[in-house]
From TrEMBL:
Keyword Translocase recorded: no
Protein name: Heme chaperone HemW
Residue ranges constituting the Radical SAM core domain according to the UniProt record: 24-267
Superkingdom assignment: Bacteria
SMART domains recorded: Elp3 (SM00729)
Amino acid sequence: MPGVLPDGETVPVDGALPGTALRGVGARGFGVYLHVPFCASRCGYCDFNTYTAAELGGGVGRESYADTVLTELALAARVLADTPPPRVDTVFVGGGTPTLLPADDLARLLDGIDRTWGLAADAEVTTEANPESVTPGSLKTLRAAGYTRISLGMQSAAAGVLAVLDRTHRPGRAVEAAREARDAGFDHVNLDLIYGTPGERPEDFAASLEQVVAAGVDHVSAYALIVEDGTRLAARMRRGELPYPSDDVAADRYLAAEAALDAAGFSWYEVSNWARGGAARCRHNLLYWTGGDWWGLGPGAHSHVGGVRWWNVKHPTTYAQRLAAGHSPGLAREILTPAETHTEDVMLRLRLASGLPLDVLDDAGRAAAARALADGLLDPVAYPQGRAVLTLRGRLLADAVVRDLLP
């Protein structure tokens, strides 16, 4: 039976959406997120909905996973049967480690999405991957199947930092994998970095940035380490084995990233993301950040269509059981109010280099924007043109600026 969370309402057994949500599906873009919950090992900092083989026990295995997801895709097609999206603009396969699935299964899943709703001629199709989970052969299979973009979890070039994070790939493997992806014909390649890990020295992060630039990728994501409750890393810090991350160190690392990437021809387009030109920007993430629609497939996946947001049950076994019974795997959902939509719009758009239109703010918000301008947190060129765009200093204080702009 469908479940309910305290802040959510029941998802109908058939997954049906309110009529108001179905009007204009895809008018602001339509994407598909596909969650693959499998990992070879668990990283100490990760709190994502992922499982190793030992943790799953007798649960859903990789062998049957593609068929299970295709069952949910068929349910999604029924829900949107009368109001299908005009096309699928972006697909993002995340996890977990999607490339633990056979490349042929990932190809079959993409083909299923195309058969269901149709991929746009210029669709962006991304898969995440760990550097050790791909080979030149698997990358060629994915590229031939229609994947256009790959995002590789590098995190650091320093062996000591990788060890603290419980990453299993050797230093240098991420750069090799990025080059293999380019050789396989991928149009766009991203490398992910994490900075501020305990024990990371300035020269460690500088070396990571140097390797990223040398790899020839066209996109870089760099995030400060966040210590999540319930993770192995959090437990180590509570026991005093490792120090907690420093905000000052994180700010220094961010400034180092901006300097190195800007010098190498990258431009920021979201606070934690840099690209070599507009074509290299992650369009799927931009869909999230600008209020588009997307359907999330897989255990724990979140979806948003027409102001309705819902999320699936987390455990792969429960997910498969729901679908086998002919039920939606949705656990709960919420219908966003205009105020909630406005809050999220401000929070997300202000993080973009394109900025936030000042006219979406109320009087108090515009007064706060004027103060942020005077404090050097907003761009003085964009402001008279009606947009709030963060300066470099503003990016360091983005969360505080958002809080001031909101009621």
